């Protein structure tokens, strides 16, 4: 079964991220981290997928992303402005060492609730969690994904990873 979730760009990998819901944002200060190439390990546990009654996990994905002050601001503004009939992000908070948001998405055969939180541990390290709950005809028993993220700075040079993009090393 193919399920589509709204992407938040490479900040999902470096996670990728205030009280934005009620104010217009024109400029966002980047977090107190080094800009450049980051690597994120995402460990996912899944329960409720068809043919997978006992749950799956953990599954590890490793991604690299190139973060610049410009890509950080662009991705946040894009996420804030993606309010549409399919997805809303009513609760987004950005503090100097913490980024969190809640998102709700509706599709023809499912509804998804997302909670994401990322903490800055220092200029070269971040960690976080995400939970995704889906319900509806596509998921008759419900589907739950719990993720932990661990990110670390690699280099001020991004090499072949362009700003605002990501590269999957392990999926």
What brief labels describe this structure?
171 residues, mainly beta, 7% helix, disordered N terminus
Give a structural overview.
- An eight-stranded antiparallel beta sheet has the order 3-4-5-6-7-1-2-8, with helices on one face.
- The two termini are 17 Å apart.
- The chain is globular and about 45 Å long.
- The protein has one domain.
- The chain is 7% helix and 51% strand.
- The protein has one helix spanning 69-80; strands spanning 36-47, 56-67, 87-95, 98-106, 111-122, 125-136, 139-155, 166-170.
- Mean pLDDT is 79; it is low at 1-26.
- The relative contact order is 0.26.
- Strand 6 (125-136) and strand 7 form a beta hairpin.
- It is mainly beta.
